[in-house]
Amino acid sequence: MINVPPDAASSSIGSDTQLNLGEGGEIGRSFQAGAEDGTSTNVQVNISGGTVEPYFHANAGSTVTMSGGYINGELYAGSGSVVDVSGGRLGVFVHTDEGSDVTISGGEFGPSFRRPAPNTVTLVGGDFAIDGLPIAGLDNVGDEVTVDIPVNAVLSGVLAGGNPFAFAPYNDENFHGTSATSRSAARWLTVRRSASI
Fold first, then answer.
1. Residue 186 pLDDT exceeds 80
2. Strand 75-77 to 155-159 pairing
3. What is the pLDDT of residue 164?
4. 126 bridge partner residues
5. What is the 3-state secondary structure (H, E, C) of the chain?
6. Which residues neighbour 25 within 8 Å (Cβ) at sequence distance 6 or greater?
7. Residue 196 has what pLDDT?
8. In whole angstroms, what is the distance from residue 21 CA to residue 49 CA?
9. Half-sphere exposure of residue 20, counting CA atoms within 13 Å on the CB side?
10. pTM of the model as a whole
11. I need a surface site. Which of 17, 106, 107, 171 has the fewest CB within 10 A?
12. Are residues 39 and 9 in contact, defined by beta-carbon separation less than 8 angstroms?
């Protein structure tokens, strides 16, 4: 187990390794969670504070949980990775590969999801609507619906952590938007109703 601080973070971690980033800590530029070739297993990064510099890569076999802190730039979620964001602040953009699993229930993020693969991003919260019209099929806690947001439409809602958002695509691969806390969006998103909204 690596605790940052007091430990210093290396440029990567491999199989059967856990790294915990807390207040005052830093993970450097181009960090690799797991091997780039996807052969790692049981890689865990927990971010509750501190700063992650640009080009953070969550590779296959890695799980990244973020409840605080700041990713100061790009986050890449590779195929076979799991990323769970409940707080903190994501930086410039999130890139999701097919086979990745990104869940966002809180925090601030933006300005874009870049080239998101279908069925890779789940937003957890409530009051989900497209162009102001409620999304059907979300009557009960835990219900989820995958939506393909049309260009020029706006997906809005409130994350389980309480942050409102409004997302809008600007082409078939990349979305931008505005909200009280971020500018961001993705071409295909799954929305899941939470208990707290």
1. no
2. unpaired
3. 87
4. 158
5. CEEECCCCCCCEECCCEEEEECCCCEECCCCEECCCCCCCCCEEEEECCCEECCCEEECCCEEEEECCCEECCCEEECCCCEEEECCCEECCEEEECCCCEEEECCCECCCEEECCCCCCEEEEEEEEEECCEECCCCCCCCCEEEEECCCCCCEEEEECCCCEEEEEECCCCEEEECCCCCCCECCEEEEEECCCC
6. 4, 5, 9, 49, 50, 51
7. 63
8. 6
9. 6
10. 0.87
11. 171
12. no
Instruction: Kindly give, in sequence order, each residue whose CB lies less than 8 Å from that of residue 129, ignoring residues fewer than 6 positions away.
Output: 135, 155, 156, 157
Q: What is the CA radius of gyration of the chain?
A: 16
Place of tokens 């020029």: 152
Q: Which two tokens stand for residue 171?
A: 């082409």
Find out whether 183 and 108 touch, Cβ atoms under 8 Å. no
Of 14-23, 46-55, 112-121, the least confident: 112-121
* Strand partners for 167: 155, 177
- Residues in the chain, total: 197
Looking from the CA of 153 toward its CB, the CA atoms found within 13 Å total: 16
